Amino acid sequence: MEDEDKTKAKLIKELKTLRKERGKGVLKDIAKLKQTEEVIQESENRFRELFNNMSSGVAVYEAKDNNKDFIIINFNQAAEKIEKVKKEDVIGESVLKTFPGVKDFGLFATFQEAYKTGKPQHHSIALYKDQRISGWSENYIYKLPSGEIVAIYDDITDYKKVEGNIKKAKDELQMIIDSVPDIILYKNTEDKNIRANKMLDDTLKIPVKDIIGKTTEELFTKG
Asked: Fewer CB within 10 Å, N side or C side of the chain?
């Protein structure tokens, strides 16, 4: 009986020790899990800050009906500013409904290509327009491992306006010098012709386009 009591006491002691060690293990697992959750939360916070404070517009889409449509599931602050909409008004909406000119713009086909192939796509500078907004942009499209489509783009409307104004000014200058009854020829520091008027064209019988970019020596050297 005494031996049996000793055996029971020993067993109880071992069980208590085992329970104590198991408790330590559980605490360690909980601490490790909490640490992992904190790391994940920190990463999510960093991503959210980056997403919302990027100067480029970023929109995330989810394919619907075998990529016959794409639903907006995220929209950063730059995109709100570019598109003149509020994030809460477009989340969950079809891109075809929100941006009805997206097919004519060519971007919808780029979405479908990125979704189908999984390869990054570049949508060159183009003018988007519908009844609400219009603007020039350049888009880069990516497919995430989750299957979602991400569009990163920049609004270059102001740049295109400046570019248009410069072209207009150059055209007006050309009209002015073409109206002068004397030969006018502009050269750069490398002696290359950069602008000529119609009188030079008429006198030399050489089209202005063949004069521009050449030096005087190149112009009159016969091959």
From this structure: C
CATH code where residue 90 lies:
3.30.450.20
**What does DSSP assign to residue 94?**
B
Give per-residue pLDDT as tens, 70-113: 999 999 999 999 999 999 999 999 999 999 999 999 999 999 99
pTM of the model: 0.65
Which residues constitute the domain of residue 38? 1-44
Cα–Cα distances in angstroms (integers) from residue 190 to residues 149, 159, 177, 185, in the given order: 49, 29, 22, 14
Taken in order 80, 85, 88, 93, the sign of the CA dihedral is negative
* Cα–Cα distance for residue pair 201/71, rounded to 1 Å: 57
Residue that is last in its domain, among 107, 135, 155: 155
Helix (H, G, I), strand (E, B) or coil at 152: strand
The answer to whether residue 51 is domain-embedded is no
Cβ-count burial 36-68 (b if 16+ within 10 Å, e if not): eeeeeeeeeeeeeeeeeeeebbbbbbebeeebe
Q: Which residue has the tokens 């929209």?
A: 75
Specify if 49 maps to a domain: no
